[in-house]
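ingest -> validate -> predict -> emit
validate: passed (alphabet ok, no gaps, 130 aa)
predict: started
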Amino acid sequence: MFEITKTITLRDADAAGVLFFARYLSLAHDVYEEFLAAKGISLRAMLDRGDMILPIVHAESDYRLPLWVGDQAVIQIEVAELAERRLTLTYTFLTPDGEVAATCRTIHVSVDPATRNVIPLPEELRAACR
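emit:
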């Protein structure tokens, strides 16, 4: 598991000062990028090589407790499934008190950008996610 603490900012919130529902996935994606970087995977290098893209084909969220502007939310990411061509990640958002505020899940598929065909995940990514 990898985790990071994020401050909920005003731009993240709705008019009531609560984290806006769509921002959960945006913050999750930020943590995903930081997770890969911590594992030595450069998204920039992956994109520059041009041999594979990793689009999200499914995303879902469940909300339990609000996160407020100014909260220091801990966001945990775990590899839920590592298949030949698919990577499933789960995210847990914790309140400053350590309670589960929300959970998200994203499914990524490895795709050849030239043919748009699904291809095996690169070994460097598979190794980083084990």
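The radius of gyration is 16 Å.
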